[in-house]
Amino acid sequence: MTALCTICARGGSKGVKGKNVRLLNGLPLIAHSIAQARASGTFDAIAVSSDSDEILSIAREHGADFLIVRPGELASDTAAKLPVIRHCVEQAEVMLGRRTDVCVDLDATSPLRHAEDIVAVVAMLDDAAATNVITAMPARRSPYFNMVECGADKVPRLAKALEVPVVRRQDAPACFDMNASIYCWRRDALMQDPTLFTDGTRLYVMPEERSIDIDSEIDFALVELLMARAIAENGGGA
User: Fold this and answer.
1) Beta strand 45-50 pairing with 148-150
2) Do the beta carbons of residue 110 and residue 214 sit within 8 Å?
């Protein structure tokens, strides 16, 4: 089995300026995902896709095998992620000299995952019916209990009403927040399925302390705090 890791990181960022190269525990943010990919022992190659020369240079310095220059039409604020990953895979396969069997995308802004999470996600493809795996954490709010939406009449109502209402969140059906940490596909599913969700999609649940996706300065500060705590407790990286 040939497995490829992609890490896609744009140069522009509105929420946190230059976040992909900003230092976190002494390393550029993107370097943490490269290190986790390497530590998992799962991949034949690690490819980083970016429109930024600085990001690509840092990725090379920290061990990326392939540097993919992202075209402008895939580097805008409105560009969808799936086409970016597909482009990265196709270009990396040319450099690798063969097609991959499994493609795993690690989001550079989710640096608290463990290498063991990557290994476990890929293992879920052992299910013959599985086409792809997404990661999430248990939701803090429930659409059956304390999430509301307003209709045309502006009246707030539960987002999803049960036939028999629950009086405790713990009694509601389990719900999950996607944490944008790890996406894993069989190659053909990545290239052919038009959406992320199919009958073959599987879910890998991660704890909240490994699920923070950096999209604001508050997120960055929280990740710094959690990483420092993990280092203090375990004597190693997050």
Assistant:
1) unpaired
2) yes
